[in-house]
Automatic annotation (TrEMBL):
Protein family according to the UniProt entry: Belongs to the purine/pyrimidine phosphoribosyltransferase family. Xpt subfamily.
Protein EC: 2.4.2.22
Source species: Carboxydocella sporoproducens DSM 16521
Gene: xpt
Main location: cytoplasm
Protein name: Xanthine phosphoribosyltransferase
Annotated ranges, domain Phosphoribosyltransferase: 51-157
Binding-site residues for 5-phospho-alpha-D-ribose 1-diphosphate, renumbered to this chain: 128-132
One GO BP: xanthine metabolic process
Catalytic activity, reaction form: XMP + diphosphate = xanthine + 5-phospho-alpha-D-ribose 1-diphosphate
Example GO molecular function: xanthine phosphoribosyltransferase activity
Keywords: Cytoplasm, Glycosyltransferase, Purine salvage, Transferase
NCBIfam families: PRK09219.1, XPRTase
Organism placement in taxonomy: Bacteria, Bacillati, Bacillota, Clostridia, Eubacteriales
Cellular component GO terms held in the UniProt record: cytoplasm
Length: 189
């Protein structure tokens, strides 16, 4: 998606040799107009697939997931990283190693909101090693729901997550695919 690539070129910052910082529009400060456009693009790609629920993980996936849910007219469920005391009902849970935080996190959703009748679209901000997406896929599988696909704003194609998910037969749609970080900046696939 050209609008997104342009924004990444203009405002993205490289940290080390494999982290892209997009705090000015996606991960900290949010650009609602851009998020709406991202939501519209995901909705355009997945509209024919009968999605009944968007699933994401807190916190960075929520904003874009809400835009997709708004466009498709379906609820948005975000997995929680710690089971809060208010979530007393039974949950589906999965483990993921956080790439940016370098720690193991557990994600969970209430069984009440993810059911075998659901056709689920997973949305997240980044796809890198694929741990977060795989944990969400596991929640969908535990619920016996159907997985329509995975939509990510940015896929770092030089990391294995996208390839592994596609090899597992999962449809992965990325709005920007980064092939490499070079001295000149971000190189898109
Ligand atoms: P994965 O589980 O695929 O390795 O990483 C997915 C999660 O790590 C994303 O939800 C995102 O929060 C974070 N992440 C991975 N790579 C990057 C990156 O280059 N920049 C930012 N801002 N977050 C990243």
């Amino acid at each position: 998606m050209e609008l997104l690539k342009q924004r990444i070129r203009e405002d993205g910052l490289l940290i080390g040799n494999n982290i892209l910082k997009v705090d000015s529009f996606l991960n900290h400060q949010l650009d609602p107009q851009l998020l709406l456009e991202l939501g519209r693009e995901f909705a355009r790609r997945f509209r024919p697939d009968g999605v009944t629920k968007i699933l994401t993980v807190e916190a960075s996936g929520i904003a874009v997931a809400v835009m997709v849910g708004l466009e498709l007219g379906v609820p948005v469920l975000f997995a929680k990283k710690k089971q809060p005391s208010t979530l007393v009902e039974e949950v589906y849970a999965a483990e993921a190693f956080s790439f940016t935080k370098q720690e193991q996190v557990s994600v969970c959703v209430s069984r009440r909101y993810l059911t075998a009748e659901d056709r689920v679209l997973i949305i997240d901000d980044f796809l890198a090693q694929g741990a977060a997406a795989k944990a969400l896929v596991s929640l969908v599988e535990q619920a016996g729901a159907s997985l329509v696909g995975v939509g990510v704003v940015v896929e770092k194609a030089f990391q294995p997550g996208g390839k592994e998910l596609r090899e597992a037969g999962i449809r992965v749609e990325a709005l920007a695919r980064i092939g490499a970080f070079t001295e000149k900046g971000v190189e898109f696939v």
